[in-house]
Amino acid sequence: MKKISKVLALISGAVMAIGTMSGISADAVFITDDNPFEVPSGYIEVDDKGQLIDVLYNSYQEPSQYVVYKIPEGQGADICIYYNFLYDYTVFHFDEEKSGAFDEIYSKYSDKLNFVYFKKYNDEAVMFDRYGLEGKPADEKGKSEIIVQMTEELYKARCIQSAEYKPLLAHHSDGYVGSYAVMFDKDMTAEEKQAEYDKLVEITGKFENGSVSIGSDRYMVGLNFEDYVDWSAAVKEVYPDAEFAKCIIIEMSNGEVSSETIDLLAAIGDTADDGTVYGDINSDSKIGIGDAIAINKYINGSIVFNKSQTKAADLNKDGAVNVDDLNIMLQYLVDIIDEFPVNK
Questions:
Q1: Alpha carbon separation from 100 to 94, 147, 158 (Å, rounded)
Q2: Minimum mean pLDDT among 75-84, 262-271, 292-301: which range?
Q3: 203-211: long-range contacts (C-beta < 8 A, 24 or more apart)?
Q4: Strand, coil or helix: what is 327?
Q5: pLDDT at 135 over 70
Q6: How far apart are CA 23 and CA 229, in angstroms?
Q7: Interval 59-63 mean pLDDT
Q8: Which residues contact 229 (CB under 8 A, 6 or more apart)?
Q9: pLDDT at 120 over 90
Q10: 3-state DSSP call for residue 59?
Q11: Distance between CA 295 and CA 292 in Å, rounded?
Q12: CA 22, 77, 195: angle at the middle one, nearest 5?
């Protein structure tokens, strides 16, 4: 048998496949304890013992933690991978006219937050930290409180229209594990091939669902996905120069999954439990003169509010929308007050 080698191929742009695999790399860590995500429906969590490390590492060229799930169906497996774990993932949407004010307030908190990633677009700011090989640093637990404080100041300065926080975020990819194989020397005699086949049957039979058949240039092996590492090690104890081939195909563009999503405006009391933003009557994600005009028209009887608009316009929470709410709105717009009574 030939010496093992590794081939990593990029197929059709976003799809990666492993042809042959080398030993386990130290550039990624499989999460086995304290996994914060719920197991996807129909799957079970499995320890892949490093089979996917090289794929994930070459995809991002940086260390990554990951967790693997599979559909429990024996040989061959549909798998699901969560990887490249991020934490304190925060997104703000703001009025472009308030970009300077946003920068000024963010600068007050940037050193404390010390995000590994911060990117500001036209009307959006994205920031997060990334899990290292040892997971989330213990001293990062208080960062969410700082984010809430910053959000409150940004909102009071009317810089932001929405704020979303995800304690933990991971990339999500689906894949499939196909067959395994051990290559054989075509120059072997029929007796040598049979003896080698019999030995592989003996080794493989010690693993659940293990099976071996002979192909044109290889022994085809049926095996549970999670048993491959132990099985290949057992084969190499007998055949040190064994060359293995296997097929793992992963679609690297399935999207993201988060442990939960938190509306930061709700966390600071500027959004009702049902998602209503007090003061945003016309649902344009900001509070302005248009909302005051809408309240005035409602009071005059020229327009009718629906249930959500009525709730958003009741700024003193007295159960009615009237001139008191209009006065509160006008005071807010000219900076006499910096929050509505309903939020106190």
A1: 11, 19, 12
A2: 262-271
A3: 203/231, 203/234, 203/235, 203/238, 204/231, 206/234, 207/231, 208/74, 209/74, 209/75, 211/75
A4: helix
A5: no
A6: 9
A7: 54
A8: 24, 48, 49, 50, 51
A9: yes
A10: helix
A11: 5
A12: 60
Q: How far is residue 159's CA from residue 98's CA, in Å, rounded to a whole number?
A: 5
The residue among 166, 167, 153, 164 whose CA lies nearest residue 103 is 153
Specify the DSSP element, H or E, that contains 254: none
Rounded Cα gap, residues 103 and 100, in angstroms: 5
pLDDT at 35: 65
Q: Where are the alpha helices (DSSP H) in 33-98?
A: 53-60
Closest to 228 in 3D by CA, of 172, 174, 178:
178
- Considering only 102-116, 190-204, 209-223, 267-281, which range has the smallest mean pLDDT? 267-281
Q: What is the DSSP letter of 260?
A: -
Q: Where are the beta strands (DSSP E) in the chain?
A: 7-11, 15-20, 28-30, 44-46, 64-70, 77-94, 117-120, 124-130, 160-183, 211-214, 218-222, 244-251, 256-258, 262-263
pLDDT one-digit tens code per residue, 220-242: 898 888 888 899 999 999 998 88
State residue 230's pLDDT score: 93
Query: How does 80-91 read in b/e, with b if 16+ C-beta sit within 10 Å?
Result: bbbbbbbbbbbb
Tokens 């900001």 -> residue: 286
The residues, any chain, with a CB within 8 Å of residue 321's CB and separated by 6 or more, are 295, 298, 299, 305, 310, 313, 314
DSSP class of 75 = B
Q: How are beta strands 77-94 and 117-120 bridged, if at all? A: unpaired
CA distances 257 to 60, 81, 82, 86, 129, Å, are: 17, 11, 8, 10, 16
Query: Looking up tokens 């016309």, which residue turns up?
Result: 282
What's the pTM value of the predicted model, to 2 decimals?
0.64
- Identity at 238, one-letter amino acid code: V
